[in-house]
Structures are given as C-alpha cells and as structure tokens.
Amino acid sequence: MARIYRTAKSTLALRHRKRFLLDRLKIRPDCLRASLVERFSQCGKANCQCHHGGDKHGPFYYLTQCLAVGKINKFLLKTPAQQQAARSAIEHYRQLQEHLEELSQINAQLLRREEPLRDD
Q1: Pick from 63, 65, 60, 64: nearest CA to 39
Q2: Helix axes of 80-112 and 11-24: crossing angle, nearest 10 degrees
Q3: Which residue, among 91, 86, 88, 90, has the nearest Cα to 75 in the 3D structure?
Q4: pLDDT at 1
Q5: How far is CA 77 from CA 49, 60, 91, in A?
Q6: What is the chain's alpha carbon radius of gyration, rounded to the nearest angstrom?
Q7: Which CA distances in Å does 102 have to 12, 16, 19, 110?
Q8: Residue 37's beta-bridge partner residues?
Q9: Ramachandran angles phi, psi of 32, nearest 5°
Q10: CA separation for the pair 120, 116 (Å, rounded)
C-alpha cells in the first residue's frame, strides 16, 4: 500500500518539491527488490533438542524474490556481510520506491490542476 503524500500545496510548492525529488532521485547500483527472511528450523536428527521443546536451529537468513506468478527465487545468505549487504540494498530500493511514489502523486496533482508535467 502506498503512502499518501501531502499534495494540497500551491502549484509552485509542488514544483519545488518535484525538483527537489528529481535532484535526490538516484538509482544506487546495489538496489534490490527482495525480502530478507529470518528462519529457525528443526534438523533431521530425532534425538536433537530441537525436536523436544528445545531451541530450534538458527537463525538462518534467506533472500527471497517473487519474479513472476509461481516463480520465487530464494537462497541462503551465509555470512553476516551478505546479510548486511542485503539489508542495505533492500533499504535503497525501498527509498527509491518511496521517492518515485511521491513524484507520481505530485504529477497526478499537477495534471488535476491542468498544469504541464514538464518545465521545459
């Protein structure tokens, strides 16, 4: 669900915000549309404490991506460096999406006001 931004501003204020967003809008090379999933699991050893009320094994961190209907890419992130890189890349993607959403809402408001979308 998209966040709703305040677009009940003057047209000049919307244009200033739009310019600000466009100046800040940069695509980082490590952007990643994915989720980081933390899992705990039971092993295959029947005598292990994880089967008898003890702590399960983990945490294990997986990166998951939904590529298309029924197509999911999932793999284990084995090192803390991989896990941190994934967290950072996912956050960069989230920030990009947030800026694009605000830009889109500003453009919709400008269209509603019958204003041009481009300044050139």
Answers
A1: 60
A2: 150
A3: 86
A4: 63
A5: 25, 8, 17
A6: 22
A7: 16, 13, 12, 12
A8: 62
A9: -145, 120
A10: 9
State the chain's mean pLDDT as an integer. Answer: 90
Q: Domain map of the chain by residue range?
A: 11-112
Q: Which residue has the tokens 């920030």?
A: 95
The pLDDT tens digits of the residues spanning 57-93 come to: 999 999 999 988 888 889 999 999 999 999 999 999 9
Residue range 103-108: mean pLDDT, rounded: 93
74/37 Cα distance (integer angstroms): 10
- For residue 89, give both structure tokens: 């890349």
Neighbours of 89 (CB within 10 A): 19
Tokens of 49: 């404490």
Tokens of 63: 């990166």
Cα–Cα–Cα angle for 94, 99, 105, rounded to 5 degrees: 125
Alpha helices in the chain (DSSP H): 11-24, 80-112
| 119 residue type, one letter | D
